[in-house]
Known about the structure:
By secondary structure, this protein is α+β, with helices and mostly antiparallel strands. The chain is built from five helices and eleven strands. The chain starts with a helix and ends with a helix.
Amino acid sequence: MSAEERAVPEGWTIDGAERLLRSLAGVVSVRVVAKPGGAVEEIHMLTTEEVSPKQTVRNVESALLARFDLEVDHRKISVAQSRGRQPAPVEDMPETTVIDVTPALHALPSSGDSRIVFCGHQVQTERSHEVKMLVTVQWNGERFDGEATGPDVPRNRLEAVASATLNAIDAALASEEPKETPALVLDGVKSVEAFDRKYVLVSVHAITGRDRIALAGSAAVDDSPDRAVIMATLQATDRWVRGRI
């Protein structure tokens, strides 16, 4: 049995871990990503400034160890802080309102971690019954924006968020002069319900030359569907993109 397998106890669930971590001081939202065998791959935290990022990481490690006997490497825990009051969910805002969360979020990836990290997004509803999305990501210390516009109906809205995220990733790729020029094309976005929770699934085609690879990501809807789509899109594409640099 490997060291990783010994570190994964029986009896814990992603839902249980997320509920536990949401109860910690200063925590606004949580997303836990785990392998099929149970090993934790990533934990993404959004917190207020009540607790420092370093202390939040220590609190996460201690809580999971105490409740589930689950050891998690601190490098797998990323923390983003929100200054002041959280923005209201997009669904609750009136039309023609612009929501700008980019200045309020600070991505804090672990040292030496080159993952593409979500920084924030803007949403603007247009008089033409369209919605414009602007997604900002951070990679290697730089921020990149992507935009997309679509009809302001549920499915098309989610697709616009995913497309804006892909466009931000394309901008990051263009800055790095990749070995091959890749293309990320949205296949679709779907909202599903499972295990008494709502999830979004994002499917992307990664194209390099004549090669086409199907990528997929998923995320639980904790605060807003838009945010979940962004995280699912990053989950689907991040490793593939980094392999092209």
